[in-house]
Design a protein that fits this description.
The chain is mainly α. Helix content is 81%, strand content 0%. It has one domain (39-221). Residues 21-26 have low confidence and may be disordered.
Length: 229
């Protein structure tokens, strides 16, 4: 949780009842954090659900309209993770990374039986350390869904879907990440405090994921779905 300002401590201590002080602290700090965590969980679940439905309905490819729907959910994930960091005053690794693992696995297991996709879940867990923002999150989720398709025996769908992800990463996600990093870099001189820290983090996270994280995830998925990348 973010450091409580001195004025708020005095206000809380001056409250007539301890319960009132706790309520003030909760409304200003804990409640907003809980709200944005729930938003993050919702958009992660929706991303996995709609991705699976879209891929199954189209044989592994995505229409432009479907890509736009998924990208909007990726943006909502990005907004939620920024808000979580902002209202808690904590870094991504402390407050968002645990959500990636818990929510991602729950979303996948809601759609696939664990006894058939244990290898895909292991891929998810092993690769989650390479995720540093919503950009890496959607790659991890997408690859894992494809690995689940492969593990349940739908090899042709898994292969076509993974080719779709490969093209998305190269032709859409990377250019978008580069543009976002450039935008954030230009905004840094005008930001202060938490906003400056979050923007600085996201710049470094994007750079890491483009050069190390996402390539590592894409290389690892080839151990399950053996196609050229």
């Amino acid at each position: 949780m973010a450091k409580v300002p001195d004025w708020l401590v005095k206000l809380a201590l001056g409250s007539a009842a301890v319960g009132g002080a706790i309520y003030i602290l909760y409304k200003l700090f804990a409640e907003p954090a809980d709200y944005w965590r729930r938003q993050y969980e919702y958009w992660a679940r929706e991303y996995v659900r709609e991705l699976k439905e879209f891929l199954e309905s189209s044989g592994g490819t995505l229409t432009q309209a479907q890509r736009e729907v998924l990208e909007e959910k990726r943006r909502r994930l990005g907004e939620s993770e920024k808000k979580i960091m902002e209202v808690t005053g904590q870094p991504w690794d402390k407050v968002v990374a645990p959500l990636v693992t818990s929510v991602g696995i729950a979303a996948i297991l809601a759609l696939f039986p664990y006894e058939k996709v244990a290898r895909a879940i292991k891929y998810f867990k092993d690769s989650s350390g390479h995720v540093k923002s919503s950009h890496g999150t959607v790659v991890l989720l997408s690859n894992t869904v494809n690995a689940c398709f492969y593990e349940v025996g739908n090899v042709s769908l898994a292969t076509a879907s993974q080719i779709t992800v490969n093209n998305y990463v190269s032709n859409s996600l990377y250019p978008s990440m580069s543009a976002e990093a450039s935008y954030l870099q230009a905004q840094l001189p005008y930001l202060t405090g938490v906003q400056h820290a979050i923007a600085s983090y996201l710049i470094s996270a994007i750079q890491y994921q483009m050069s190390v994280g996402i390539p590592a995830m894409m290389a690892a998925i080839r151990q399950i779905i053996p196609i050229a990348i």
